[in-house]
Amino acid sequence: MAAYHLDTFEAYLDARRQAAENPEAFWASIAAHFAWKRPWDNVLSADFERAHNRWFEGGILNITENCLDRHLEIRGNKLALIWEPNDPRERFVRLTFRELHTQVCQVANVLKKHGIQKGDRVALYMPMIPELAVSVLACARIGAVHSVVFAGFSAQSLADRIQDAGARCVLTSDGLYRGNKEIPVKRVVDEALEQCPTVEKVLVVERTLWAVSMQPGRDFWMHEEVETVERDCAAAPMEAEDPLFILYTSGSTGKPKGVVHSGGGYMVYAGYTFRNVFQCRESEVFWCTADIGWITGHSYLLYGPLLNGTTTLMFEGVPTHPDPGRFWQVCDKHGVNVFYTAPTAIRALMAAGEDHVLAYSLDSLRLLGTVGEPINEEAWHWYHIHVGKERCPIVDTWWQTETGGIMISGLGALSPMKPAHAGLPLPGVEAVLLDKEGREIEATEAEGLLCIKRPWPGMIRTTYGDHDRCVQTYFSAFKGYYFTGDGAKRASDGLFRIIGRVDDVINVSGHRFGTAEIENAINGCKAVAESAVVGYPHPIKGQGIHAYVVLRESAGASDEPQLEIVHAEIVEAVVESIGRIAKPDRIQMAPGLPKTRSGKIMRRILRKIAEGETESFGDTSTLLDPDVVQALVQGYRSLSEH
Ligand code: PRX
Q: How far apart are CA 79 and CA 471, in angstroms?
């Protein structure tokens, strides 16, 4: 029987061996540590080619029973959730497992009262307040499929996601505070709902007490509704493969796709990886700074810690408000033991200077973590020295929305640690490097395309409403493998270093965008003939967005004031279509794009120019108009001089 908790490096090696020799027996023994209403009949039926991978079939469970009910007897009065508000002067909130259980049951009953049933999709568009955590769990309680949309996305993005999922209900708030910003969340929802006929009910949480319009029969205040329902709600019995949630994420083509995760496998994987990567003890406080609108918030702010009975901290604000010492102030205030954040936040705080971090003791910290993008060595060392005081190990955790949980990472203090290296695959994760022809690279020290060779319980089940897209995106590039879209290096000691995306996905401050998504928004402007978007190295964000835009002849490209208007229109188009988070950092007006004779844009050249390269573009003879390259270089120069 495989141990649920790995407490030595040898135990990790042993688990890896067991998982490789008999994966089904391995995962069955991990799954046995959870509460099932009915055990599974079959651990795994796998088919990579058709993307038909099913775990623990026949098993019946409810993930909220594992997050809440299971703990009531032994740790009912222990803190489950600590909430720190945007404004440090406002009161924080603490909820025990018992209190959280009651709140989840109440909201679950409100959903039921409004006709929401098992299998219905519920969209959540909310600030980082306890009610968001409660609402997510309330959906899971009754078997409704939650689709959390980060409350920084625009009304159009929200509408797209609601429509794609066919959501019947939206949970939101009156407004939102984030740093110095105040966002009228309900107004964004109202605008989105003009295009969403499937939505019958909107439940609104009070946060800012701003006046909002409430549509009779459709919109209800959550605090009033909660008063009308029972305080207990039986957990719906769910099949292991019933969908638990949809989370939209960007790929190389088209609109963002709804990644679907099912309850049984996701629970086992999020629980197991949380336990072992962060090694939290019973008395510890865990803080993941991600928003619940991203997968990191799902798996390691909410489900992972609660599944393990760990106290999780939720923060409403941003790292730099009211000053760049906020993260560290919160660590001291709540005695945080494990702190998990993104490299972009570390780089931003590093740029603000050491004084902000040196002002706090940070004595409670035991372990640090990073996620979302490659961490550069300078930021890694700053984090290690100034935050971790060279005492706390760092786990650099590589994974994706599609993987459900951490795939490659150190395990607390147990594993070897090397700056900028994610490390070794977790037990049961068979990570391989392929060359461009799809051949597995045997040598340990190598660079290639990162693929996963075997199913794991937390893996993506489908892309909502379009299974073929799931097959095409992840399982078709290389037969028999899940293709991650990342390039990676493996050092002689077997440790992986993630290089970054090899497809047309840009990772801006740990947020994924498809270049096509941004181009579609830009191309919607009247003055624009065509555009091409690429990522370039950015000192804080990891990657910045560089847009090359070709204007229509009628747009008045030589007229400065006219150009400024067009520039503003382009920015506005992206903000409206996607959200402020996808705003291009640079917009370069271009006379044309480097295209092959068949009309394909050579992005390789555009990427080089955006990186500041002025020559050595390789073979440009296949270009329809090779002169365009020099014109683009000139354009880049005058852009950077501006
Ligand atoms: O390129 C990898 C990068 O983030 C991508 C996944 O993005 P998303 O689905 O939004 O999930 C982010 C949080 C899990 C990956 O394809 N990435 C994630 N973690 C790391 C990373 N790149 C380098 N190092 C990491 N630790």
A: 42
Q: How far away, in angstroms, is 536 Cα from ligand 1 center?
A: 17
User: Residues in the chain, how many?
Assistant: 642
Over 90: is that where the pLDDT of 572 sits?
yes
Expressed in angstroms and rounded, the spacing between residue 302 Cα and the centre of ligand 1 is: 19
CA of 400 to the centre of ligand 1 (A): 5
Does some domain include residue 34? Answer: no
Atom of ligand 1 nearest to the CA of 511: 10
Longest dimension (CA), the chain: 73
Q: What is the DSSP string of 498-534?
A: EEEESSSEEEETTEEEEHHHHHHHHHTSTTEEEEEEE
For the stretch 385-411, pLDDT in tens is 999 999 999 999 999 999 999 999 999
* Nearest atom of ligand 1 to the alpha carbon of 500: 1
Q: How far is the CA of 32 from the centre of ligand 1 (A)?
A: 29
**Ligand 1 atom showing the smallest separation from residue 401 Cα:** 9
Does residue 605 lie in a domain region? yes
Q: How many domains does the chain have?
A: 2
Domain containing residue 116: 99-236
**Model pTM score:** 0.96
The confidence band for 557, taking pLDDT boundaries of 50, 70 and 90, is low
pLDDT tens-digit profile of 429-467?
Answer: 999 999 999 999 999 999 999 999 999 999 999 999 999
